[in-house]
Amino acid sequence: MNGQRRRIPLWQGHWLGLVLLAATLFAVPFVAALGGQAWVRIANFAILYVFLALGLNIVVGYAGLLDLGYVAFYAVGAYAYALLASPHFGIHLPFWVILPFGAGLACFFGVVLGAPTLKLRGDYLAIVTLGFGEIIRIFMNNLNAPINITNGAQGITLIDPIRIGDFSFSQTSTIFGVTLSGPQKYYFLLVALAILVIMVNMRLQDSRIGRAWQAIREDEVAAKACGINTRNIKLLAFAMGASFGGIAGGVFAAMQGFVSPESFSLMESITILSMVVLGGMGHIPGVILGAVLLTGLPEALRYGIEPLQKAAFGRMIIDPESLRMLVFGLALVLVMRFRPAGLWPSSLRRRELSETTD
Amino acid sequence: MDTLLQQLINGLTLGAVYALVALGYTMVYGIIGLINFAHGEVVMIGTMVAFTVIVFLAGSGMPPLVILGIGLLVAVAACMVLGWALERIAYRPLRHAPRLTPLITAIGMSIVLQNVAMIIWGRNYITFPPMIHKEIYELGGASFTNVQVAIVCLAALVMLGLTYLVQRTRIGMAMRATAENQQVALLMGVDINRVIAMAFVIGSALGALAGCMVGSYYEIAHYQMGFMLGLKAFTAAVLGGIGNMAGAMAGGLLLGVIEALGAGYIGDLTGDFLGSHYQDIFAFIVLIIVLMFRPSGLFGERTGDRA
After folding, report:
1. d(Cα A325, Cα B30) in Å, to the nearest integer?
2. Distance between B75 CA and the closest CA of chain A, angstroms
């Protein structure tokens, strides 16, 4: 590495790698299915989180706006889907109507929240977004009386799966002689969406807007002096991040068939933020790595800790659920302790960091 | 009228607790400019330690107030050690790292502390043994207990003491100097590491105290209680202008009162459309409104943008 930023498009000179990557991505749902459909679902969640983390990466990584309430937009998307495609109101709209609507609604919320608050400095913005996330969650939890809109803490069940004509994503079917289960089909849908968001992120990174974001992140006053309309550009980052959150929410609702306020706690926002920071803020491969690791690690621990304890002590000494989270917390601390810029930081950030510590 | 007075009294009690916790956030923020996300968990550990000590000593025949005092002291001591350890593990090694890195380690520590607490004290609510015989006083149609009086008085005393410490003692001067400009303070011979550690230790001691107050006020404790409490207290600190100690005290009291009034009146205001379970959103709505008009909080100085 000579520290120069590579500007070669990903598809040039990397075709072998790309083929390998595509083959791996294709194989994952079939290999995972050997361990049971639960593992396919875990893979699906990993990709959903890649999607979410890349959406948040636009806000935090590129524009440098600390958003602790990202899950609010995810929730808006999920509830938009749930209300418009479930027996709750008896409305059953097709997904290609709802997903863009959910994205637009989340985007609208992003602008509503962002417009008055984006002049705040970093940590003030963080707490305002956090508060907004909590407000949304509390409303979802309580909007069941006097008019039942969100069905309160019970959540909304029996949400329609994504369906194209007679082809439903929730049932097992055979395509070209290959039998695919519901989760496996969602896997391919999610991979397609993830590729879309990766493309958007990549194209944004070196675009005029992307460079404006980075300028704001590094020095807002200087960026303003260079003629960047900082308010609009920051708002754009917020709105884009929010709409990705909205799409992810819609897919989540369709995939689970069930949403409840519990899925949209502050902890969720924090987990997504951890993925972005732990992987390497502002660096697409890093963020993807962070999302996959932080989804996979707790699951791996779930399956690993019980037998390990039994082997070591002959019985369960410590509640595996809390031990799992304990290890997760420790992992966060240790990784950041030894790799402060994240596991896979961009070369630019790595260089900045070594300069400041000198 | 009696609702108003009643809610004011309740709000003042809650606000005193918020103010103490908010001081912990604001001291650390004022000195190193970082949100100590694990502070809420320190408060929770304080409550739990006090609970264990009190239950342990309950059968010893000592007078209840002495037991309560010992519980409080042990909790404060434990939290001071914890605060010191937090700084050493999660903050000191990362002082020159990118700004978000310590935030993630703090979140990690917070997850660790929560789960340690769950392993030790279980996942159920635990009942805090009532050590003070509750007496109820009436005043103009509103009632309050001696526990509430004790909380407010103790909090006021501690805040006075803290103000004295920061404004009049050598270590306080060192703290103010470090908050003003670390480099220059270092050149003047201030031991920066010690000052930062002190901020964590003092903040945690206040947190432990607040934890004991919450415990004896609500008489229950839970391993997740630190989360919402920390969030509210942090909101209070931001409301007052983070980094500003007087702001944290005022913000805490204000937030407590607003919350109590909001919970008391929301039903009347919205024609019973929204009930008191919306209590938690007041804190955030007020915060957003205040920050829209005063971006550095109510008492915060107008500072320039920090890179």
Report:
1. 31
2. 22
Alpha-carbon distance of B69 to A240, in angstroms, equals: 54
- DSSP-assigned letter for residue B94: G
Q: To the nearest 10°, the Cα dihedral for B22, A328, A342, A186? A: -110
Phi, psi at residue B18, to the nearest 5°?
Answer: -55, -45
Task: Mark yes or no for CB contact B234/A127 under 8 Å.
Answer: yes
Does residue A320 have a cis bond before it (omega within 30 degrees)? no
> Would the CB atoms of A60 and B100 count as touching at under 8 Å?
yes
Pairing of strands A163-164, A167-168: antiparallel
CB A279 within 8 A of CB A290: yes
- Taking CB atoms and an 8 Å limit, are A277 and B100 in contact across chains? yes
Dihedral, CA of residue A230, residue A234, residue A240 and residue A245, to nearest 10: 180
Residue B307 has pLDDT above 50, yes or no: no
Q: Could you give the CA distance from residue B282 to residue B276 in angstroms, rounded to a whole number?
A: 10
Token pair in block for residue A277: 């920071």
Disruptive mutation site among A112, A123, A277 for chain B (greatest number of B CBs within 10 Å): A123
End-to-end Cα spacing for chain B: 50
Count of residues in chain B: 307
| Residue in chain A nearest B278 by alpha carbon | A138
Report the C-alpha dihedral over residues B3, B5, B6, B12, rounded to 10 degrees: 140
Residue of B nearest to A136 (CA): B281
Taking the domains of chain A in order of start, what are their residue ranges?
40-264
Neighbouring CB atoms inside 10 A of B30's CB total: 23
Count the neighbouring beta carbons within 10 Å of the beta carbon of residue A33. Answer: 18
- Which two tokens mark B67? 């037991």
Report CB contact under 8 Å: B288, A132.
Answer: yes
Structure token digits, residue A89: 């109101």
Lowest-confidence segment of B9-23, B187-201, B236-250, B261-275 by average pLDDT: B261-275
Q: Cβ of B111 and A326 within 8 Å? A: yes
**DSSP of A229-269, one letter per residue?**
-HHHHHHHHHHHHHHHHHHHHHHHHHHHS-B-GGGG-HHHH
- Residue A128 to residues A14, A135, A265, B31: CA-CA distances in angstroms? 43, 10, 15, 22
Local structure of residue B276 (DSSP, 8 states) = G
Nearest CB partner across the interface for B115, out of A126, A274, A329: A329
How crowded is residue B267: how many other Cβ atoms within 10 Å of its Cβ? Answer: 14
Tally the C-alpha atoms within 13 A of residue B284's C-alpha that lie toward its C-beta.
23
- Residue B44 pLDDT grade (very low, low, confident, very high; cuts 50, 70, 90): very high
Quote the pTM value: 0.84
Least confident residue range of A19-33, A182-196, B84-98: A19-33
Residue A24 buriedness (CB in 10 A; 0-12 / 13-18 / 19+): exposed
Q: How far is B78 from chain A (nearest CA, A)?
A: 20
pLDDT at B274 over 70: no
Q: Is B104's CB within 8 Å of A318's CB?
A: no
